[in-house]
Amino acid sequence: MTTPKTAGAYHIPVLLRPSVEALRPERPGGIFVDATLGGGGHTREILRRMAPDGRLFGFDQDLDAAQNAPRDARFTFVRGNFRYLKNFLRYYGAPQIDGLLADLGVSSHHLDEGGRGFSFRYPEEQLDMRMNRQAGLTAAQVLQTYPQERLAEVFRLYGELRQAPRLAAAIAAARAERPIATCGELAALAAPLLPRDRERKELTKLFQALRIEVNGELSALQELLQDALDVLRPGGRIAVITYHSLEDRLVKNFFKSGNFSGTVEQDFYGRTAAPLRVVPPAFIAPPQEETETNPRSRSAKLRIAEKP
Ligand SMILES: C[S@@+](CC[C@H](N)C(=O)[O-])C[C@H]1O[C@@H](n2cnc3c(N)ncnc32)[C@H](O)[C@@H]1O
Hints:
The protein is an alpha/beta fold. The chain has 2 domains: 16-108 and 217-306, Vaccinia Virus protein VP39 (Rossmann fold), CATH 3.40.50; 133-214, Putative methyltransferase TM0872, insert domain (DNA polymerase, domain 1). The chain has 12 helices and 7 strands. A 7-stranded mixed beta sheet has the order 3-2-1-4-5-7-6, sandwiched between helices. Strand 1, helix 2 (41-49) and strand 2 form a beta-alpha-beta unit. Helix 6 crosses helix 7 and helix 10 (217-231) packs parallel to helix 11 (245-257). The longest helix has 16 residues, at 199-214. It binds S-adenosylmethionine (SAM). S-adenosylmethionine binds at residues 11, 13, 36, 38-42, 59-62, 65, 81-83, 103, 105-107, 131, 220.
Protein backbone atom coordinates (compact mmCIF):
# COMPACT_ATOMS: atom_id res chain seq x y z
CA MET A 1 0.00 0.00 0.00
CA THR A 2 1.53 3.31 -0.99
CA THR A 3 0.86 6.47 1.00
CA PRO A 4 1.72 9.63 -0.92
CA LYS A 5 3.72 12.10 1.19
CA THR A 6 3.53 14.92 -1.29
CA ALA A 7 0.84 16.15 -3.57
CA GLY A 8 3.44 16.49 -6.33
CA ALA A 9 3.62 14.78 -9.68
CA TYR A 10 5.09 11.29 -10.09
CA HIS A 11 8.18 12.82 -11.71
CA ILE A 12 9.11 15.98 -13.62
CA PRO A 13 10.96 15.01 -16.82
CA VAL A 14 14.50 16.33 -17.13
CA LEU A 15 16.05 17.72 -20.34
CA LEU A 16 12.86 16.72 -22.10
CA ARG A 17 13.24 18.52 -25.39
CA PRO A 18 16.90 17.88 -26.27
CA SER A 19 16.73 14.23 -25.22
CA VAL A 20 13.63 13.47 -27.28
CA GLU A 21 14.77 15.54 -30.27
CA ALA A 22 18.03 13.59 -30.24
CA LEU A 23 16.12 10.42 -31.16
CA ARG A 24 14.46 12.03 -34.20
CA PRO A 25 11.24 10.18 -33.44
CA GLU A 26 9.44 11.59 -36.51
CA ARG A 27 11.13 9.17 -38.91
CA PRO A 28 8.46 7.02 -40.59
CA GLY A 29 8.14 3.48 -39.27
CA GLY A 30 10.75 4.12 -36.57
CA ILE A 31 11.07 1.80 -33.58
CA PHE A 32 12.13 3.43 -30.31
CA VAL A 33 12.80 2.47 -26.71
CA ASP A 34 12.31 4.54 -23.58
CA ALA A 35 14.36 2.35 -21.23
CA THR A 36 13.12 4.22 -18.12
CA LEU A 37 9.39 4.95 -18.33
CA GLY A 38 9.02 6.32 -14.76
CA GLY A 39 6.33 9.00 -14.81
CA GLY A 40 6.12 8.72 -18.60
CA GLY A 41 7.18 12.31 -19.34
CA HIS A 42 9.69 11.41 -22.05
CA THR A 43 7.49 8.66 -23.43
CA ARG A 44 4.55 11.02 -23.92
CA GLU A 45 6.79 13.49 -25.75
CA ILE A 46 8.22 10.78 -28.00
CA LEU A 47 4.67 9.63 -28.84
CA ARG A 48 3.60 13.20 -29.55
CA ARG A 49 6.32 13.54 -32.18
CA MET A 50 6.30 9.96 -33.46
CA ALA A 51 4.91 8.94 -36.87
CA PRO A 52 1.56 7.08 -36.96
CA ASP A 53 3.36 3.89 -37.97
CA GLY A 54 6.12 4.21 -35.33
CA ARG A 55 6.49 1.93 -32.32
CA LEU A 56 7.67 2.69 -28.81
CA PHE A 57 8.64 0.24 -26.07
CA GLY A 58 8.69 1.69 -22.55
CA PHE A 59 10.67 -0.29 -19.96
CA ASP A 60 10.50 -0.04 -16.19
CA GLN A 61 11.43 -2.58 -13.57
CA ASP A 62 9.08 -0.96 -11.05
CA LEU A 63 5.48 -2.05 -11.36
CA ASP A 64 4.34 1.35 -10.00
CA ALA A 65 5.41 2.88 -13.34
CA ALA A 66 2.74 0.83 -15.15
CA GLN A 67 0.15 3.41 -14.04
CA ASN A 68 1.93 5.90 -16.32
CA ALA A 69 1.87 3.72 -19.43
CA PRO A 70 0.00 5.74 -22.07
CA ARG A 71 -2.96 4.20 -23.83
CA ASP A 72 -1.67 4.40 -27.37
CA ALA A 73 -1.67 1.56 -29.90
CA ARG A 74 1.94 2.40 -30.83
CA PHE A 75 3.14 1.90 -27.23
CA THR A 76 4.10 -1.29 -25.36
CA PHE A 77 4.95 -1.33 -21.65
CA VAL A 78 7.73 -3.76 -20.76
CA ARG A 79 7.83 -4.50 -17.06
CA GLY A 80 11.44 -5.60 -16.75
CA ASN A 81 15.04 -4.66 -16.24
CA PHE A 82 16.59 -2.79 -19.15
CA ARG A 83 19.71 -4.92 -18.76
CA TYR A 84 17.77 -7.55 -20.78
CA LEU A 85 16.95 -5.11 -23.59
CA LYS A 86 17.95 -7.41 -26.43
CA ASN A 87 15.98 -10.42 -25.14
CA PHE A 88 12.84 -8.39 -24.52
CA LEU A 89 12.98 -6.81 -27.97
CA ARG A 90 13.45 -10.20 -29.60
CA TYR A 91 10.44 -11.47 -27.64
CA TYR A 92 8.33 -8.57 -28.94
CA GLY A 93 9.47 -9.15 -32.53
CA ALA A 94 11.50 -5.93 -32.77
CA PRO A 95 15.13 -7.10 -32.89
CA GLN A 96 16.37 -3.78 -34.30
CA ILE A 97 15.59 -0.23 -33.23
CA ASP A 98 16.15 3.34 -34.41
CA GLY A 99 16.66 5.03 -31.08
CA LEU A 100 16.91 4.53 -27.34
CA LEU A 101 16.57 6.94 -24.45
CA ALA A 102 17.62 6.16 -20.87
CA ASP A 103 16.96 8.63 -18.05
CA LEU A 104 18.86 6.88 -15.28
CA GLY A 105 18.37 6.38 -11.58
CA VAL A 106 15.32 6.72 -9.40
CA SER A 107 12.25 8.87 -9.93
CA SER A 108 10.80 11.46 -7.56
CA HIS A 109 8.12 8.88 -6.86
CA HIS A 110 10.76 6.59 -5.37
CA LEU A 111 12.23 9.30 -3.18
CA ASP A 112 9.07 11.00 -2.03
CA GLU A 113 6.25 8.51 -2.00
CA GLY A 114 5.08 5.28 -0.60
CA GLY A 115 7.61 4.11 1.98
CA ARG A 116 10.28 2.88 -0.43
CA GLY A 117 13.12 3.57 2.01
CA PHE A 118 15.42 5.53 -0.30
CA SER A 119 15.96 8.66 1.76
CA PHE A 120 17.08 9.77 5.22
CA ARG A 121 14.46 12.52 4.95
CA TYR A 122 11.95 9.86 6.02
CA PRO A 123 13.61 8.35 9.09
CA GLU A 124 10.81 5.97 9.99
CA GLU A 125 10.89 4.11 6.65
CA GLN A 126 12.25 0.58 6.38
CA LEU A 127 15.53 0.52 4.42
CA ASP A 128 14.38 -1.13 1.20
CA MET A 129 15.64 0.85 -1.86
CA ARG A 130 14.71 -1.81 -4.41
CA MET A 131 13.22 -0.36 -7.58
CA ASN A 132 11.89 -3.84 -8.29
CA ARG A 133 10.31 -4.98 -5.06
CA GLN A 134 10.02 -8.55 -6.29
CA ALA A 135 13.74 -9.24 -6.58
CA GLY A 136 17.04 -8.92 -4.80
CA LEU A 137 18.22 -7.91 -1.36
CA THR A 138 16.80 -4.89 0.43
CA ALA A 139 19.23 -2.24 1.70
CA ALA A 140 18.68 -3.55 5.24
CA GLN A 141 19.65 -7.06 4.10
CA VAL A 142 22.77 -5.71 2.40
CA LEU A 143 23.78 -3.94 5.61
CA GLN A 144 23.08 -7.07 7.64
CA THR A 145 24.75 -9.72 5.44
CA TYR A 146 27.70 -8.18 3.55
CA PRO A 147 31.15 -8.65 5.07
CA GLN A 148 32.48 -5.43 6.57
CA GLU A 149 35.17 -5.08 3.87
CA ARG A 150 32.61 -5.36 1.10
CA LEU A 151 30.45 -2.67 2.70
CA ALA A 152 33.49 -0.41 2.88
CA GLU A 153 34.11 -1.09 -0.82
CA VAL A 154 30.51 -0.18 -1.71
CA PHE A 155 30.74 3.10 0.22
CA ARG A 156 34.14 3.92 -1.29
CA LEU A 157 33.36 3.00 -4.89
CA TYR A 158 29.76 4.15 -5.20
CA GLY A 159 29.67 6.95 -2.62
CA GLU A 160 33.28 8.12 -3.01
CA LEU A 161 33.21 8.48 0.80
CA ARG A 162 36.50 9.03 2.59
CA GLN A 163 35.02 7.62 5.79
CA ALA A 164 34.04 4.33 4.09
CA PRO A 165 36.08 2.00 6.38
CA ARG A 166 34.87 3.73 9.55
CA LEU A 167 31.26 3.66 8.37
CA ALA A 168 31.50 -0.05 7.58
CA ALA A 169 33.09 -0.74 10.98
CA ALA A 170 30.32 1.17 12.79
CA ILE A 171 27.67 -0.79 10.88
CA ALA A 172 29.37 -4.11 11.66
CA ALA A 173 29.46 -3.23 15.37
CA ALA A 174 25.84 -2.04 15.45
CA ARG A 175 24.38 -5.00 13.57
CA ALA A 176 26.01 -7.42 15.99
CA GLU A 177 23.60 -5.96 18.60
CA ARG A 178 20.53 -5.66 16.38
CA PRO A 179 19.70 -5.18 12.67
CA ILE A 180 19.74 -1.68 11.20
CA ALA A 181 16.19 -1.54 9.91
CA THR A 182 15.20 2.05 9.13
CA CYS A 183 16.57 5.03 7.22
CA GLY A 184 16.72 6.98 10.49
CA GLU A 185 18.77 4.28 12.23
CA LEU A 186 21.35 4.28 9.46
CA ALA A 187 21.52 8.08 9.38
CA ALA A 188 21.92 8.28 13.17
CA LEU A 189 24.71 5.73 13.07
CA ALA A 190 26.58 7.45 10.22
CA ALA A 191 26.12 11.14 11.09
CA PRO A 192 28.67 11.32 13.96
CA LEU A 193 31.34 9.91 11.60
CA LEU A 194 30.79 12.53 8.91
CA PRO A 195 32.13 16.10 8.73
CA ARG A 196 29.55 18.36 10.44
CA ASP A 197 29.55 21.01 7.73
CA ARG A 198 28.91 18.45 4.98
CA GLU A 199 26.73 16.02 6.89
CA ARG A 200 23.70 16.09 4.58
CA LYS A 201 25.84 15.88 1.45
CA GLU A 202 27.78 12.91 2.79
CA LEU A 203 24.62 11.18 4.01
CA THR A 204 23.20 11.62 0.52
CA LYS A 205 26.30 9.92 -0.87
CA LEU A 206 26.01 7.07 1.63
CA PHE A 207 22.38 6.45 0.71
CA GLN A 208 23.24 6.74 -2.99
CA ALA A 209 26.01 4.16 -2.63
CA LEU A 210 23.64 1.68 -1.01
CA ARG A 211 21.01 2.29 -3.65
CA ILE A 212 23.48 1.70 -6.49
CA GLU A 213 24.50 -1.59 -4.88
CA VAL A 214 20.95 -2.76 -4.09
CA ASN A 215 19.83 -2.20 -7.68
CA GLY A 216 23.05 -3.24 -9.43
CA GLU A 217 22.80 0.07 -11.25
CA LEU A 218 26.23 0.22 -12.86
CA SER A 219 26.22 -3.33 -14.20
CA ALA A 220 22.66 -2.82 -15.53
CA LEU A 221 23.82 0.31 -17.34
CA GLN A 222 26.79 -1.49 -18.88
CA GLU A 223 24.60 -4.32 -20.14
CA LEU A 224 22.06 -1.83 -21.49
CA LEU A 225 24.68 0.07 -23.47
CA GLN A 226 26.16 -3.09 -24.91
CA ASP A 227 22.74 -4.41 -25.94
CA ALA A 228 21.75 -1.01 -27.33
CA LEU A 229 24.80 -0.96 -29.58
CA ASP A 230 23.88 -4.42 -30.90
CA VAL A 231 20.22 -3.66 -31.62
CA LEU A 232 20.67 -0.16 -33.02
CA ARG A 233 20.29 0.22 -36.79
CA PRO A 234 22.89 2.28 -38.67
CA GLY A 235 21.91 5.93 -38.24
CA GLY A 236 20.15 5.09 -34.95
CA ARG A 237 20.88 7.03 -31.78
CA ILE A 238 21.32 6.46 -28.05
CA ALA A 239 20.59 9.32 -25.63
CA VAL A 240 21.42 8.89 -21.94
CA ILE A 241 20.73 11.25 -19.04
CA THR A 242 23.02 10.59 -16.06
CA TYR A 243 22.93 12.03 -12.54
CA HIS A 244 26.33 11.23 -11.04
CA SER A 245 29.91 10.91 -12.17
CA LEU A 246 30.10 7.09 -11.95
CA GLU A 247 27.35 6.47 -14.48
CA ASP A 248 28.37 9.47 -16.57
CA ARG A 249 31.92 8.13 -16.90
CA LEU A 250 30.61 4.79 -18.16
CA VAL A 251 28.43 6.46 -20.78
CA LYS A 252 31.15 8.89 -21.85
CA ASN A 253 33.72 6.11 -22.27
CA PHE A 254 31.33 3.80 -24.07
CA PHE A 255 30.22 6.47 -26.53
CA LYS A 256 33.84 7.37 -27.24
CA SER A 257 35.30 3.90 -27.59
CA GLY A 258 32.65 1.15 -27.36
CA ASN A 259 34.15 -0.06 -24.06
CA PHE A 260 34.05 1.11 -20.47
CA SER A 261 37.69 2.02 -20.05
CA GLY A 262 37.44 4.59 -22.83
CA THR A 263 40.45 3.23 -24.72
CA VAL A 264 39.92 3.69 -28.42
CA GLU A 265 41.23 0.61 -30.19
CA GLN A 266 43.14 0.72 -33.46
CA ASP A 267 43.25 -1.83 -36.23
CA PHE A 268 46.40 -3.18 -37.91
CA TYR A 269 46.73 -0.01 -40.01
CA GLY A 270 46.35 2.35 -37.04
CA ARG A 271 42.78 3.28 -37.95
CA THR A 272 40.56 3.90 -34.96
CA ALA A 273 37.62 1.55 -34.62
CA ALA A 274 34.99 3.17 -32.42
CA PRO A 275 31.52 1.68 -33.01
CA LEU A 276 29.66 4.91 -32.17
CA ARG A 277 30.04 8.55 -33.11
CA VAL A 278 29.50 11.13 -30.38
CA VAL A 279 26.86 13.68 -31.44
CA PRO A 280 28.14 17.13 -30.39
CA PRO A 281 28.21 18.88 -28.01
CA ALA A 282 30.02 16.44 -25.69
CA PHE A 283 27.11 16.75 -23.27
CA ILE A 284 24.08 18.92 -22.58
CA ALA A 285 23.29 20.24 -19.08
CA PRO A 286 19.91 21.69 -18.09
CA PRO A 287 19.52 25.45 -18.48
CA GLN A 288 19.23 27.60 -15.37
CA GLU A 289 15.43 27.94 -15.71
CA GLU A 290 15.16 24.17 -15.49
CA THR A 291 17.45 23.72 -12.47
CA GLU A 292 15.56 26.50 -10.70
CA THR A 293 12.15 24.95 -11.20
CA ASN A 294 13.30 21.35 -10.85
CA PRO A 295 16.26 21.03 -8.43
CA ARG A 296 16.57 17.30 -9.21
CA SER A 297 17.80 18.24 -12.68
CA ARG A 298 20.87 20.00 -11.27
CA SER A 299 23.31 17.15 -11.70
CA ALA A 300 21.89 15.91 -15.02
CA LYS A 301 24.01 15.44 -18.14
CA LEU A 302 22.67 14.31 -21.48
CA ARG A 303 25.02 12.49 -23.86
CA ILE A 304 24.07 11.44 -27.38
CA ALA A 305 25.75 9.00 -29.75
CA GLU A 306 24.93 7.65 -33.21
CA LYS A 307 25.73 4.36 -34.86
CA PRO A 308 27.44 5.15 -38.17
C1 LIG B 1 14.58 9.04 -13.58
S1 LIG B 1 13.26 7.91 -13.68
C2 LIG B 1 12.62 8.15 -15.31
C3 LIG B 1 11.67 9.28 -15.42
C4 LIG B 1 10.99 9.43 -16.76
N1 LIG B 1 11.93 9.70 -17.81
C5 LIG B 1 9.95 10.53 -16.69
O1 LIG B 1 10.12 11.54 -17.35
O2 LIG B 1 8.98 10.38 -15.95
C6 LIG B 1 14.01 6.35 -13.86
C7 LIG B 1 13.04 5.19 -13.96
O3 LIG B 1 13.77 4.10 -14.49
C8 LIG B 1 13.49 2.94 -13.77
N2 LIG B 1 14.71 2.12 -13.82
C9 LIG B 1 15.91 2.39 -13.27
N3 LIG B 1 16.78 1.41 -13.53
C10 LIG B 1 16.12 0.49 -14.29
C11 LIG B 1 16.49 -0.74 -14.88
N4 LIG B 1 17.71 -1.26 -14.72
N5 LIG B 1 15.56 -1.39 -15.61
C12 LIG B 1 14.31 -0.87 -15.78
N6 LIG B 1 13.90 0.27 -15.22
C13 LIG B 1 14.79 0.95 -14.48
C14 LIG B 1 13.12 3.39 -12.37
O4 LIG B 1 12.26 2.45 -11.78
C15 LIG B 1 12.47 4.73 -12.64
O5 LIG B 1 11.07 4.62 -12.73
